[in-house]
Amino acid sequence: MDIFLQQLANGLTIGSMFALIALGYTMVYGVMKLINFAHGDLVAASAFVGLFIFTNLFGSGTSIFIAIAVFLLTAVVIAICGVFLERVAYRPLRTAPRLSAVVSALGASMVIQNGIMLLWGPQLKIFPDLIPQVYWDLGGVVISLIQVLIMAFSLILMIALYIFIEKTKMGTAIRASSIDQDAARLMGINVNNIIVTIFVIGTSLGAVGGLFIGLYYKGITFNMGWQYGLNAFIAAIIGGIGNIPGAMLGGMLLGLFNAFIAGYVSSTWADAFTFTLLIVILIFRPTGILGERVAEKV
Amino acid sequence: MTTTSNDILLKVTDLEVSYGNIAAIKGISLEVRQGEIVTILGSNGAGKTTTMRTISQLLKAKSGSITFNGVELTNLPAHKIVSLGISHSPEGRRVFGILTVEENLMLGAYTRKKVDPEILSWVYNLFPRLEERKAQLAGTLSGGEQQMLAIGRALMSKPSMLLLDEPSLGIAPILVKAIFAQIRKIAASGVTVLLVEQNAKVALKLANRGYVLEVGKIVFSGTSAELLGSPKIQEAYLGKKRH
Ligand SMILES: Nc1ncnc2c1ncn2[C@@H]1O[C@H](COP(=O)(O)OP(=O)(O)O)[C@@H](O)[C@H]1O
Ligand SMILES: [Mg+2]
Question: Where are the beta strands (DSSP E) in chain B?
């Protein structure tokens, strides 16, 4: 029972991070029908940018204000990178064959990964303790302040995003653009602006995810975007790519699944089990758990 | 409708449009005056939809000019067109299937600061079905209801001109009649209508004037009476409908 509760807490923590990152994949896919392979690398870049901002602007010492400032500044920097990425790597290929955009995405991924290595080196870096290391022992189950904050903030961000997408005029325009871009233009929606908005939101959430990874795992590497990106991408597919609540659900499910595999089997097998889960889900629900809506729109 | 003025609202001049190397519109000119209902007739593949999409700037003209109220449209992006007063109900309806009927209508008013409750109730008056089903996903409506929604959505921007691309397509004859009766009301309220149809019979019953498009060229134009009276038109577009 202790293992179960412990892995439940860990799984919800990891799942929150997967979900935040998965949203970036799914939102871009929703409107552009493009897998932004560089998204995971922007997530990795975010951890390094956060580290850089902290050490250069604040030096040392932690406070809630410093933590908030690091998160905000990092999100802004990464969002700018995301908008720049869309501008140079994807917009020129908007009407090109699908494969060109995929190749461009893979290229962008490598550029960002190598850029991080060039700036910060290939060795593992230690992410600073922006949040104090506080642990609570709840009768055999240990939970850290960091875990609680990760879960709480992810939840808040996801609820905020959900309300924005479902209830606001801009959110409705985003949904319309992901259904039918030409029809959206006939309504007067500037689809280019929608795409920029999507990149800003998706990469900002990814940036928060990257900082959470730094806080939670401590060690960050230039190529970690591949690993976390892949998991988040799978989470988006499990939930139904293009579907925003689906990415949240898929992220949480995959996080929990990973944690329970690590708790009851072995963490070395986590990837093998992840792919097995993906295959099984795709056999029974080819469009993902909430993906019916995607298939419906034809 | 007896006070039709002679102000030209939409003027298309020497328009050419191609898909890659294939010319779809080969230099057409037409005009629509304030308050008119004008129809473009033509069989499948004649270039009617291409013409409409080029007016809305979803397609870019290869050459020629399109002016609306004297404003040149061809160098504007598509999303700028609706706020000039042209609203386009596209071929195949293109309603947002996984959004509700109400959300679809709200999107029709996207360029307006606020949704005008008067327009909304006018649209619901024209198509009461839409009000009954406002909370339903648009994709679950019947074809005829989706067509009503597409027209209603286009009206939400309070346009001075409505572009209708084959509103009768794939719809039961009874509903076609009902929808065309409402189009007549919309026109009577002062909205200028450019209507594209394969169904020449219903279109000419409604329109003041018409153009006949054949493989990208206008081959005939005149008043509805002239078109109805022309043996060539009767044979090509009305023939099989004469039971
Ligand atoms: N996306 C496209 N790509 C290439 N050719 C097209 C495309 N859309 C239409 N066409 C061609 O342009 C011509 C006119 O089509 P269209 O405007 O749809 O005709 P209509 O609406 O009168 O049926 C046809 O020959 C059609 O095959
Ligand atoms: Mg057509």
Answer: 8-19, 22-33, 37-41, 63-68, 71-72, 86-89, 161-165, 192-197, 209-214, 217-223
Nearest to B94 among A180, A190, A191 (CB): A180
Residue found by looking up tokens 């004649």 in the block = B46
Residue nearest atom 5 of ligand 1, based on CA coordinates: B19
Amino acid letter for position A240: G
A contact test, residue of B100, B107, B114, B137 with most A CBs within 10 A: B107
| Inside any domain, residue B242 | no
pLDDT at B237: 79
In a domain, B243, yes or no: no
Question: How many domains does chain B contain in total?
Answer: 1
Helix ranges (DSSP H) in chain A = 2-32, 39-53, 64-85, 98-120, 145-167, 169-179, 181-186, 191-217, 224-239, 244-264, 270-284, 292-296
- The reply to whether B109 falls in a domain is yes
Closest-CA residue, ligand 1 atom 25, reads: B45
In chain A, domain spans:
19-223
Q: Which domain holds residue B24?
A: 5-237
Contacts of B150 in chain A (CB under 8 A): none
Is B158 inside a domain boundary? Answer: yes
- How far does the CA of residue A238 sit from the closest CA of chain B (Å)? 20
Best mutation site among B15, B17, B19 for ligand 1 pocket (most ligand atoms within 8 Å of CB)? B19
Q: Kindly list the residues from chain A whose CB atom is less than 8 angstroms away from the CB atom of residue B155.
A: none
ipTM: 0.94
Cα–Cα dist A179/B94, whole Å: 10
Return the CA Rg of chain A: 19
SS3 content of chain B, % helix, strand, coil (to 5): 40, 30, 35
Burial of A141 (0-12, 13-18, 19+ CB in 10 A): middle
Q: What is the pLDDT of residue A63?
A: 84
The radius of gyration computed from the CA coordinates of chain B, to the nearest angstrom, equals 17
Q: Nearest to residue A211, comparing CAs of A74, A9, A76?
A: A74
Distance from the B124 Cα atom to the nearest Cα atom in chain A, whole angstroms: 19
Tell me which chain A residues have a C-beta less than 8 angstroms from the C-beta of B80.
188
Optimal mutation site among A94, A187, A196, A244, interface B, most CBs of chain B within 10 A? A187
CATH number at residue B10: 3.40.50.300
Nearest residue in A to B114, CA atom: A169
pLDDT band at A292 (very low <50, low <70, confident <90, very high): low
3-class SS at B65? strand
Model confidence at B179: pLDDT above 80: yes
pLDDT at residue A298 is higher than 60: no
Give residue B2's pLDDT.
43
